[in-house]
Amino acid sequence: MPPKSSSPSGLPAHHASSAASDLLTPKQAARLLNLSVSWLAKRRLEGNGPLYSKLLGAVRYDEATLRQWMKSQQRISTSGP
Length: 81
Fold this sequence. Notes:
The chain is an alpha+beta fold. The chain has a domain at 18-69. It is 40% helix and 12% strand. The chain has a 3-stranded antiparallel beta sheet with strand order 1-3-2. 9% of the residues are buried. The model is unreliable at 11-17 (pLDDT under 50).
């Protein structure tokens, strides 16, 4: 029997629908962004981090939205926006 492959969310590929596999927990999102879970929590509180959803109280990040947010944070210089 071949080994089960995993989706980007860490779920077995056969259990993850395409929409659900794009949703990441804060831990998975932090790993993708190379940031800490607490950094993400602080940004949620301040309202100045990546967009997220709350599903029945659980915080989830859309992987495509995180990648888009990362691109929007690119800068040429340390001065100015």
